[in-house]
Amino acid sequence: MPDTSQSTKCPICGNAANIHPNVGGGFYIISCARCGSYESGNITQLGISNWTSQQRINLSGWIRENQNCRVVISNLQQLSNLRNLSVGEKAEKILMHLASRFPKPGEITDLSGSVHLEFLAIGRLADTKELRFFIHDYLYDEMGFLLRHELVTELSDDSRYSISPKGWAYMESLRHGNPDSQIGFIAMWFDKSVDPVWVAIEAGIRNSGYEPLRIDRKEHNNKIDDEIVAGIRRSKFLVADFTGHRGGVYFETGFATGLGLPVVWLCRLDELEKAHFDTRQYNFIVWEDDKLADLSKALQNRIEATIGRGPLTGNA
User: Fold this and answer.
1) Are residues 150 and 201 in the same domain?
2) Which residue range is the domain that position 103 belongs to?
3) Is residue 313 part of a domain?
4) What is the pLDDT of residue 3?
């Protein structure tokens, strides 16, 4: 291992960091003002020298959201493919982090010193100019989610903000999803080979008292079309089958999670090991092709245990 006394910068974002060996563990513990705390292997050979600045920004944000994680060569390929966030997603992440950082209603934010680096990471932002856009232009001026408190002796650039009642109400709506909905949205691979699975999933949702909704669309890259977005927003929960590991299923699940919708996770037994490592902490319902009746019943039981029985009549 290299001499850590010469390592004063975070290998991910380049900001000042405290780096020291994890005694007996073969890893380095890195504490960075932007990324937070994480572990890594040989920091001089991490293998990201050819990454774009946006890939580094995305990784820094992922680490900030997954504190004390481990970044090693074996998971760098997956981490290099972290998707870029939309403008709305960045704004939501910043607002939610403001609420966690300053949880008392009316509390005035202070992003001075190194605190602003946290928000750069959380929002996956390039610089403080972009952060000011989201704080002032988007969350305060456009959306009304923040209130502004100017310091008498300072310029407007040094204004402080607090979360407005509208902002708190918006975050509350994210946490509770769509409680009046009777729809269970289905995210899955649209391939004929899994049509029997669709039938089993549909039955499980209907038998639990809800209306299944599946919107067939051709594959999309880094974009969820308007009809899918609208369908998820109208739903009470989402059933996601990761068989085939389609990008669209990951996107739709992430979008539903961001809205605060409960997600039921499914995967065929022989494909479970291929699931992205970010999802492996979830309790998957694992199914097999010759036991689809078991899948349908297990899905019904999971929905009723997690969300409660739905209001639709005429179901088993």
Assistant:
1) no
2) 87-176
3) no
4) 44
Instruction: Show Cβ contacts of residue 168 under 8 Å, excluding neighbours closer than 6 positions.
Output: 99, 105
Instruction: Answer yes or no: is 314 within a domain.
Output: no
Question: 112 and 63 in one domain?
Answer: no
Mode of pairing for the β-strands spanning 160-163 and 146-149:
antiparallel
At residue 198, what is the residue type?
W
Q: How many distinct structural domains can be found in the chain?
A: 3
Which of 35, 44, 93 has the alpha carbon at shortest distance from 68? 35
| Angle value at C-alpha 96, between 57 and 86, nearest 5 degrees | 45
Q: Which of 59, 54, 83, 81 is nearest to 11 (CA)?
A: 59
Beta-strand ranges (E) seen in the chain are: 17-22, 27-32, 36-40, 69-71, 146-149, 160-163, 183-187, 211-213, 237-241, 263-268, 285-287
- Cα separations (Å) of 166 from 107, 176, 177, 261, 289? 15, 16, 16, 21, 48
For residue 7, the one-letter residue type is S
Q: Of 119, 114, 108, 115, which Cα lies nearest the Cα of 151? A: 108
pLDDT in tens, 100-151: 989 999 999 888 778 899 999 999 999 999 999 999 999 999 999 999 987 6
Give pairs for 2-11: CB < 8 Å, separation 24+. 2/42, 2/43, 2/44, 4/28, 7/43, 7/44, 10/34, 10/35, 11/40, 11/43, 11/44, 11/46, 11/48
Which residue is listed with tokens 């946290």? 118
In 133-236, alpha helices (H): 165-176, 195-207, 226-233
Its pTM surpasses 0.70: no
Q: Which two tokens stand for residue 127?
A: 């610089």
Give the tens place of pLDDT for each residue, 31-43.
999 999 998 876 5
Asked if 248 and 224 count as a contact pair (C-beta separation under 8 A), the reply is yes
